TrEMBL record:
It is a multi-pass membrane protein. Pfam families: DsbD_N, DsbD_TM, Thioredoxin_7. Residues 45-158 form the Thiol:disulfide interchange protein DsbD N-terminal domain. It is found in: Membrane. Residues 226-438 form the Cytochrome C biogenesis protein transmembrane domain. It comes from the Bacteria. Keywords: Cytochrome c-type biogenesis, Membrane, Transmembrane, Transmembrane helix. This is Thioredoxin family protein. Gene3D superfamilies: Glutaredoxin. The chain crosses the membrane at residues 225-249, 270-292, 304-325, 346-368, 380-404, 416-434, 454-475, 487-507. It comes from Flavobacterium piscisymbiosum.
Amino acid sequence: MNFNQYDQTIMSKSVWNKIIIFFLFFAFAKGNAQILEPVKWTSKIEKKSGNNAVLIFDGTIEKDWHMYSQFTPDGGPLALEIAFKNQKGNYTLVGKAKEGKTRTAFNDVFGVNETFFEGKAHIEQEITIINPNLKTVDVEFDFQVCKEVCINSNKKFSIAIPSTFKMDAVASVAEVKKDETKVEGLAVDTVKPTIEPAKTETAKAAVADASAEEDIPGPAPARSLWSIFFIAFISGFAALLTPCVFPMIPMTVSFFTKQSKSRAKGIRNAIFYGLSIIAIYVILGLIVTKIFGADALNALSTDVWFNLIFFIILIIFATSFLGAFEIMLPNSWGNKVDQQADRGGIIGILFMALALAIVSFSCTGPIVGTLLVEAASNGGIAPVIGMLGFSLALALPFMLFAMFPGWLNSLPKSGGWLNTVKVVLGFLELALAFKFLSNADLVLQLHLLEREVFIAIWIAIFAALTLYLFGKITLPHDSPLQHISVGRLYLGLLTLVFTVYLIPGLWGAPLKLISAFPPPPQYSESPFGVGGSANSGGSAESIKGLPDGAELGPHGIMVFHDYEDGLAYAKSINKPIMLDFTGYACVNCRKMENNVWSEPTILPILKNDVVLISLYVDDKRELPKEEQFVTKSGDKIITVGDKWTDFMISKYKTNTQPLYIITDLEGKNLNTSKPTISYVNADEYLHWLKEGIGNFK
């Protein structure tokens, strides 16, 4: 090969290398561009009658993603917000936008029942057109969609009015103005108020995606029907051991065995008696579902008045169980039912079962009421499943002892222990009551029942229960106690252990065993616990030693919420920056902070080796007018959250949260294997942290 051929070969290779690098660059750029759109929208308008039309919006949601409904309560993930941009003088809204099928589940991070779409989102809004020359209806959706990460999205619709729509005569000017006034009032409800700067983080992070069924967190499904059945079955067994029900077992079984002409007939009658008990309670569950609808109580479960009323009801039930008074249905009901029971035969047995339900109401009523509300919060047929489990536990002993009468000899004698069971249930009802009061306080953001107060109340209740079980406290219906039984001793030790377990919660312990009951750690006088040395809501002015623009964030980590402030401080102390793109309503962000940042191998690094800058993409505070701008793509940057969202997308080509980046003082990524990282486990996060910090010069 001569030199000319060699030069041509080198040049050819050089050209090909450049071409390959060129394509690899774009392939890499495309691979790292994560501008996700998990929801694809279509819209249309349909004529209804007169000047009324229906706007229809259909969203197809990618698998494993979920989009939050407009009915997700404040304090949880971001609810869907619908804004009608050209409404005034053109059309009025008829009621609030209606939604298709949604699902509701308890969110253990924010402490609310969140409502969301899966697979498909269907939304309809009826309007009355008052401007016959209207050409389009302009609507804007702001919504949050989550999987392993969360995305705050915006979708604009401009729906053309078909020329085939023939409008009736326009209403009088006075009527139009009157309608507009009403509609403007409705429209305000569809938009969340601007978050006050001083309260933003506390309000969003404190009010309490439900517990995940797998390692990747997302909104947890509502409690499964099997778990509802199991809890109800245990509750039915507890009701069975109360003084209203237990003594009736030998009486009822003896009746069937003596009155029946043969043992086989006695067994058949007892089985029918048990099935009648089940039927009565299942019918009660059906009635609740039918009257309130499959999901109505679900929505009620986050209503302030509902929670307050149920708190009062549970306090009354608990007071009754503790022996202050008896809750009884009218005696006339029991007398009439007893008369029917004397008729004998199938009808008589059915009325005997009804008599049991009425006579035992003072013991079973509080348990049934609590079960119905808890089951109804799951929607669907959960109340029916709950009543099936409860009644099955109640009915089984009557059927089994009728089949095997000899077992009656081994049945414990009725005595003071039955009242003990009732009192224990009273203490449990009392503790549960404060969960409903806490729900109301969380929704109203009154901060009257913060985490420390709630835990202190539970400590007092279970400490009193422990003293009662050890015989140090007696109540009105208790029998004289010469000694305590072994079973009562064990139960007392169990409640003592639980009481001791609760105490560290005052000092910030997570109390994972009861995480669904007390307010979340952020909703407290001090997120670091009673006597804690720091305050997560502190500012540079209130906490000595913090630089301007900094405050103490999760676990006492110093954090900046403005990029320029954080950058200036990082330069002054020559430390790398960890950017944290997050959101007040980002569930997985909170889970990373709670479960990963708190690790003893990670927390010191975040406190000492990096400057943390947390930028909230859902911060609704408006930027000063001079800082507002329009992007090249035409998006208006109006709020602080808009600014950080644009920064994230333009700089890092993604729109998901949480997102973590370690940079040097010039803004260059320090991680080579993974320039950015999202929701990961603690080991992977630690490795990523060490790599980035190790590359800082």
